[in-house]
Design a protein that fits this description.
Elements lengths: L14 E5 L5 H4 L1 H13 L3 E4 L14 H13 L3 E6 L15 H6 L3 E4 L4 H11 L3 E3 L3 H5 L7 H11 L7 E2 L5 E2 L16 E2 L4 E4 L2 E10 H4 L15 E5 L5 H13 L2 H4 L2 E5 L13 H9 L6 E5 L10 E3 L2 E5 L4 E4 L10 E5 L5 E6 H7 L2 E11 L2 E7 L10 E2 L2 E4 L11 H7 L9 E12 L2 E13 L12 E8 H8 L5 E6 L5 E5 L8 H18 L1
Helix pairs in contact: 9-11
């Protein structure tokens, strides 16, 4: 798996393209479909209907090629910022060989659906590393009688519109429903029941890439080139109207393929109208019987899939699953990549405007960042950047750092520590060191930062690295790091926190911060030393 590619967030005024890759729901349930379109418009979006919207061939909207062409047209349409399916069905897997994956990789955009659309979502992620979204569809969710359920609408805004900033814990709704009412004759809002919460089947905590979808659909492309690598993943599964016998077959398929040997955690969504066939055991009993002695955390009864309200799960982002406390935490702001805007300043730190991040580095604009140095007694901790990083791969750098986007405060910078190192700290636990000018100048790259710099006295907490960001953290002697950055030493020795082995660090191994930056850091740490005595 390569570097995660993050599509731009959805904003009011953006255009959403609607696809019908399987069942012809807009024809079968036209009134409900139209309500779904109006719901999107009330939320502030424009709508483009796909070429298969009003087509029907019985069980499917149109031919395989037509359905693929509908999706590809929206991938190539610069006006369309998101693509949402009308409903699921049975045959979305048919279009997988004909999707223009290279276009999606070059021009990422949101693709959302659920149920049978699992095939498209997982294939697009597997082929491109672009984050896709398992969430509500137009007819069943946005077209709900009386309007989309408020909680479900907010879940969409939280994720697609980034109304919540990661890291954050997913909300457990107070109530839920699986009530089935005839869509053709429905004249009342569905009845809700109290939510008993998310249930730990196996206690524990794990971090990994969130991947998954509808279990029944997976059988149509499982272990093909369109199925993602699940090594270390947090796998989520949900299903609808299946029997105990069918679930035993599907779960055993995963076991036989070695899935339960690969994943680091499992999330099971609420099963809409599950049929236990009078079995003398529960679904959870069956799951444990099939999984056997595997020791990874399992959380069940989660609100994802066919019941209401349903969360939106971004496929491809880092999450932490804490089943002991019933928590799913999203770590990474999936939309930070493509259109992240930074506030730019003049050389006196006066705000002069905003600009896209990539252009800021081309133009050499001053902007703000968050730096945090871990230290303890005579030690200071260097992060070794992932080899997947675009800038300075494999180099040693600040313990944790990141840009401050236009919509973020300095306190929001603490998220970098959790995203990169898996350590949850509050802003109040950090000590202010200063605002330091940090300039790095290379060919076609000029990074000029006003770095809001903080220190943290490391207490040997366990760190969990995001391998897309960090390879290792190495403890070195502060006085030796001071000497090598000043050119008085060529090589220093440190100890890897990952392997506990000694490693050698040369000046060429360091990200090339200017000497003035290093001096500010060391002088500030010396002052902090004195104040702690």
């Amino acid at each position: 798996m390569g570097i995660i590619i993050k599509p731009p967030k959805l904003q009011v005024g953006d255009t959403i393209g609607i696809i019908t890759p399987s069942f012809p729901a807009p024809v079968q349930f036209e009134g409900r479909y139209q309500r779904g379109v109006e719901q999107l418009k009330r939320m502030g979006f424009k709508v483009k209907e796909g070429t298969c919207t009003y087509k029907t061939e019985g069980y499917r909207s149109s031919s395989i090629r037509d359905r693929a062409d509908e999706l590809n047209a929206f991938l190539h349409d610069p006006e369309v910022k998101a693509i949402i399916s009308t409903i699921g069905g049975t045959n979305s897997n048919s279009v997988l060989p004909y999707i223009d994956y290279e276009q999606l990789r070059r021009h990422p955009k949101i693709i959302m659906g659920y149920s049978d659309v699992t095939a498209i979502l997982m294939a697009c992620y597997a082929k491109t590393d672009v984050v896709t979204f398992y969430g509500p569809a137009i007819v069943p969710s946005f077209g709900e009688y009386g309007g989309m359920f408020e909680t479900g609408e907010q879940y969409v805004k939280d994720i697609l519109c980034l109304e919540r900033t990661a890291p954050f814990q997913l909300h457990i709704p107070d109530e839920w429903t699986e009530e089935m009412l005839d869509w053709s004759t429905q004249q009342r809002i569905k009845t809700f029941q109290p939510n008993e919460g998310w249930i730990s089947l196996k206690d524990g905590k794990a971090k990994g890439t969130l991947i998954g979808g509808n279990l029944n659909t997976m059988s149509g492309f499982f272990k093909s080139d369109y199925y993602p690598d699940l090594k270390g993943a947090i796998l989520f599964l949900e299903d609808s109207f299946k029997t105990m016998a069918e679930e035993e077959r599907s779960l055993s398929m995963l076991k036989l393929a070695g899935v339960f040997d690969e994943i680091s955690g499992l999330i099971i969504g609420k099963h809409e109208h599950f049929q236990d066939q009078s079995a003398p055991f529960s679904f959870n009993d069956l799951l444990l019987e099939i999984i056997g002695e595997k020791d990874f955390p399992i959380l069940t009864n989660v609100d994802i899939g066919h019941t209401f309200p349903s969360h939106v799960f971004p496929i491809g982002i880092q999450v932490e699953l804490d089943t002991t406390n019933g928590i799913i935490q999203l770590f990474r702001r999936w939309g930070i990549g493509m259109k992240e805007h930074l506030t730019i300043f003049d050389e006196n730190h006066r705000k002069i405007g905003e600009k896209e991040r990539n252009q800021v580095h081309v133009d050499g604009d001053w902007h703000e960042t968050f730096h945090c140095w871990f230290w303890k007694e005579d030690l200071i901790y260097l992060q070794r950047r992932s080899m997947d990083k675009q800038d300075f791969p494999g180099k040693y750098d600040i313990t944790a750092a990141g840009h401050l986007a236009t919509d973020e405060t300095i306190a929001n910078g603490v998220r970098e520590i959790e995203e990169e190192l898996g350590l949850s700290l509050t802003f109040e636990q950090l000590t202010f060191m200063g605002i330091f000018e940090d300039v790095i100048e290379l060919d076609e790259f000029l990074d000029r930062e006003f770095a809001h710099t903080y220190g943290y006295v490391y207490q040997d907490e366990t760190l969990r690295f995001d391998d897309q960001e960090v390879m290792d953290v190495v403890a070195v002697q502060r006085n030796e790091l001071m000497s090598i950055t000043a050119g008085r030493m060529c090589t220093i020795e440190g100890r890897s926190l990952m392997t506990n082995h000694l490693v050698q660090v040369t000046q060429a191994d360091l990200v090339p911060h200017r000497q003035t930056y290093w001096q500010n850091v060391f002088e500030s740490l010396t002052r902090m030393d004195a104040s702690n005595r």
